[in-house]
């Protein structure tokens, strides 16, 4: 705990410079490019959220897309209502097509922006807490957690696709109004918007770091290694696991809200199995032991996807799968692990070179003088 | 009434009664040695006390309170600490981080959220010096020698400051000197902590023993001072060709 603090600060500062200075300059503040990067940042944020539960507490959540998509849908519902203000009864267009007569009660609260912003985090957290209590009180671990969260993901997606009257079904929610935030009409192709997303990512990262660098993070690491031993020291393991799981869901929901602002639509693919597994891959590529690395993993892989999928349209998914296999086989700790061992190695070489230089110096100057003294 | 009381305690694994109608009373501040041949049910008895295994029947009273149905972490919070037969430290964590986990007087999430540093001072410093790990605080526990790992777990129990300490073969794998030091530490804990120590090393048992309890096949075989036990024909029969017979 004491020692890693400096590394964290450096990593965080470098990441902040990358996000706030390097990227905007590199694309010369071009609105279109900044929108693309804002998308990568939102995805990096959800990868970082996964590292919180998977990397630290060993909870492999294959349903990380659920809180993300819930955040996205909640934001989209608000924007859809804004866009439908002139419609009869303020009813969204797709509801009219499916003969819904009045706005359902669970759509009503999202007229209000504050309610939307709170719900975009609170609803994913509440759902995560429900699942967490069931799993962690029941001491379900490892691969069973993966299976349950995956099943949960599939079930939630099914509900959203089936309930077309209320959710827009397969089409999702489109034709959204731009967000009005404190009198500011948010333009998702503006520099300000990019900075809004970047600041959200940096803030959530700071919260995550504070959590994992406190004793909570230490207890989570201990739980990952041997949960039952932790219990014999008096810690309520299920509570700690629930906290990690819910914080992760909160950040994912937050990222989902931003994602809708970037893309201007919400789709059931956000809670698809492919997308949810992709989050796991980003996190693994970056390195799940570090929040900054996981966020970078999300940004880098998506950047690559942006570049490569232009060249090989269908080949991309294949490439992503291959990338995951390579990472698991060659660098199971991701880019973070590679960098860490490189730094250690460099440190050792420098130290041994210094040692060598001193030995030579001793053998020549100092050594000779000693012999002189001895002769006297 | 004892600090810890086991009443008619039993546990059954399939057809095997690993602990069979065991009655045991340990007084406040007493150090009780628990002996018995391999498979006698000593570790299982400690498992029952700390909550690792649920009893099939019977009662466990700690400070007069029935704890038979409590979960592990609740028992730990009441003041029961356990050292396992195979050293159970967190190998991925450093020595200091292990100690921070063991320093669990405030195990709640809220309290943990505000701890960012482990200061090496006060009791923590004393304990680290006592077990000679002060120069290794930043070493990963996985890189310690076997003896040091045993020491670390003992240190963790000392800093946990449990009222009742359950030690399962604490000196296994230690050198003769290390074993002696452990005995000295245990002797210094007498009166402050109630302890149950499972051991096979009779030299060590002689160094620390007050009352000795011997188990066989999950049941109580004999109880008394070390001399009484060593001269007990039932015990000699149970250990036939085993250590007690050799030493006596
Ligand atoms: N979880 C379990 N499931 C089934 N059988 C068990 C379990 N735990 C212990 N046993 C059995 O219960 C009996 C008592 O085991 P225990 O570990 O308590 O013995 P012990 O006195 O500690 O022996 P040792 O000196 O070898 O450590 C053994 O026969 C063991 O095989
Ligand atoms: Mg045993």
From TrEMBL, chain A:
Gene that specifies this protein: urtC
Keyword Cell membrane carried by entry: yes
Species in which this protein is naturally found: Billgrantia ethanolica
Name the record gives this protein: Urea ABC transporter permease subunit UrtC
Keyword set, alphabetical order: Cell membrane, Membrane, Transmembrane, Transmembrane helix
Transmembrane portions of the chain: 12-34, 113-136, 143-161, 193-212, 242-262, 315-336
UniProt topology in membrane: Multi-pass membrane protein
UniProt-listed InterPro entries: ABC_transp_permease, ABC_transptr_urea_perm_UrtC, LivM-like
Entry keyword Oxidoreductase: no
Location(s) in or outside the cell: Cell inner membrane
UniProtKB/TrEMBL annotation, chain B:
SUPFAM superfamilies, per the entry: P-loop containing nucleoside triphosphate hydrolases (SSF52540)
GO molecular function: ATP binding
Alphabetically ordered keywords of this record: ATP-binding, Nucleotide-binding, Transport
Keyword ATP-binding set for record: yes
Start and end residues of each ABC transporter domain: 4-242
CDD domains: ABC_Mj1267_LivG_branched
UniProt signal peptide: none
One Pfam assignment: ABC_tran
Protein name as annotated: Urea ABC transporter ATP-binding protein UrtD
Organism: Billgrantia ethanolica
């Amino acid at each position: 705990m004491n020692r890693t603090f400096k590394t964290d600060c450096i990593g965080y500062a470098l990441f902040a410079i990358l996000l706030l200075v390097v990227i905007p300059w590199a694309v010369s503040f071009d609105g279109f490019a900044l929108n693309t990067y804002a998308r990568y940042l939102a995805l990096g944020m959800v990868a970082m959220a996964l590292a919180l539960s998977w990397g630290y507490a060993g909870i492999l959540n294959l349903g990380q897309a659920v809180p993300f998509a819930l955040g996205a849908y909640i934001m989209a519902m608000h924007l859809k209502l804004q866009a439908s203000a002139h419609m009869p009864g303020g009813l969204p267009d797709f509801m009219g097509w499916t003969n819904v007569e009045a706005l359902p009660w669970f759509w009503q609260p999202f007229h209000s922006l504050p309610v939307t912003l709170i719900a975009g985090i609170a609803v994913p957290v509440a759902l995560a807490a429900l699942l967490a209590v069931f799993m962690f009180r029941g001491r379900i671990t490892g691969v069973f957690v993966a299976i349950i969260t995956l099943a949960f993901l599939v079930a939630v997606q099914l509900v959203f696709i089936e309930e077309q009257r209320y959710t827009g079904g397969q089409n999702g929610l489109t034709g959204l109004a731009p967000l009005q935030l404190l009198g500011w009409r948010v333009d998702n192709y503006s520099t300000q918007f990019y900075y809004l997303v970047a600041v959200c990512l940096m803030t959530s990262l700071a919260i995550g770091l504070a959590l994992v660098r406190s004793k909570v993070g230490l207890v989570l690491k201990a739980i990952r290694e041997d949960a039952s031993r932790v219990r014999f020291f008096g810690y309520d393991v299920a509570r700690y696991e629930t906290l990690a799981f819910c914080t992760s869901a909160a950040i994912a929901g937050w990222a989902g809200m931003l994602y809708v602002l970037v893309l201007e639509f919400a789709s059931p693919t956000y809670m698809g199995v492919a997308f949810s597994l992709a989050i796991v891959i980003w996190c693994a590529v970056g390195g799940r032991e570090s929040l900054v690395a996981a966020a970078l993993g999300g940004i880098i892989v998506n950047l690559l996807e942006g570049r490569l999928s232009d060249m090989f349209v269908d080949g991309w998914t294949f490439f992503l799968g291959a990338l995951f296999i390579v990472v698991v086989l060659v660098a199971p700790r991701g880019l973070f692990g590679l960098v860490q061992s490189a730094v250690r190695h460099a440190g050792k070489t420098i130290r041994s070179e210094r040692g060598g230089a001193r030995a030579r110096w001793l053998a020549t100057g100092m050594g000779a003088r000693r012999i002189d003294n001895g002769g006297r | 009434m004892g600090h810890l009381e086991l009443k008619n305690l039993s546990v059954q694994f399939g057809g095997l009664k690993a602990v069979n109608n065991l009655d045991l009373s340990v007084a406040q501040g007493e150090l009780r040695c628990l002996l018995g041949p391999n498979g006698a049910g000593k570790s299982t008895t400690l498992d029952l006390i700390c909550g690792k295994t649920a009893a099939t029947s019977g009662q466990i009273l700690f400070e007069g309170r029935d704890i038979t149905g409590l979960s592990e972490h609740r028992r730990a919070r009441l003041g029961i600490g356990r050292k396992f037969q195979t050293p159970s430290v967190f190998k991925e964590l450093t020595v200091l981080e292990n100690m921070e986990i063991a320093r669990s007087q405030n195990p709640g999430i809220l309290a943990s959220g505000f701890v960012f540093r482990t200061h090496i001072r006060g009791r923590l410093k004393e304990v680290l010096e006592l077990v000679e790990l002060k120069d290794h605080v930043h070493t990963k526990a996985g890189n310690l020698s076997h003896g040091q790992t045993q020491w670390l777990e003992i240190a963790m129990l000392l800093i946990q400051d449990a009222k009742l300490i359950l030690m399962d073969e604490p000196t296994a794998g230690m050198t003769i000197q290390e074993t002696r030091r452990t005995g000295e530490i245990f002797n210094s804990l007498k009166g402050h902590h109630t302890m149950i120590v499972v051991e096979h090393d009779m030299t060590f048992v002689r160094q620390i023993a007050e009352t000795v309890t011997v188990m066989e096949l999950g049941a109580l075989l004999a109880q008394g001072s070390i001399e009484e036990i060593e001269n007990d024909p039932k015990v000699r029969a149970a250990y036939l060709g085993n250590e007690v017979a050799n030493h006596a």
